[in-house]
Amino acid sequence: MQWIKQKLSSWIGKEAEDQACRFLQQKGLTLVTQNYRCRTGEIDLVMRDGEEWVFIEVKYRKSNKYGHASEFLDRHKRRKLESAVLHFLQQHDLNPAHIAHRIDLVAIQGQEIQWISHI
């Protein structure tokens, strides 16, 4: 039964990321890549907002029974995300001191989507 739960969880996560991507594209952002992985972490969505690079973490919760989805980006996960962002920038020869970039959070709670920019 555990493998079913793992498969279902990854499918739900992928659906939430796709939903967040569509939502952000409707807001004018352009998708660069999805699920960027490196040794130090993962970035759910890498997008562009005009000239600004946007690195997005997506959090999904079916209900708020155990807290709001936005509360699940803890300090440890944020550090890993920031490290992955720096890795991405380095791999693409982008100097973080010279390019505009930010980290955003998309929290999906049931059917509600909350976009928090510049976290």
Word description of this protein:
The chain has 119 residues and is α+β, with helices and mostly antiparallel strands. The chain has a single domain (2-116), classed as Trna Endonuclease, Chain: A, domain 1. 35% of the residues lie in helices and 35% in strands. The chain contains 2 helices and 5 strands, in the order αβββαββ. The chain has a 5-stranded mixed β-sheet with strand order 1-2-3-4-5. A hairpin with a 2-residue loop joins strand 1 (30-38) and strand 2 (41-49). The longest helix is centred in the N-terminal third of the chain and has 25 residues, at 2-26. The termini are far apart. The model has no long low-confidence stretch (mean pLDDT 87).
List the helices and strands and how they pair.
Blueprint: H1 2-26, E1 30-38, E2 41-49, E3 52-61, H2 75-91, E4 101-109, E5 112-116
Parallel strand pairs: 3-4
Antiparallel strand pairs: 1-2, 2-3, 4-5
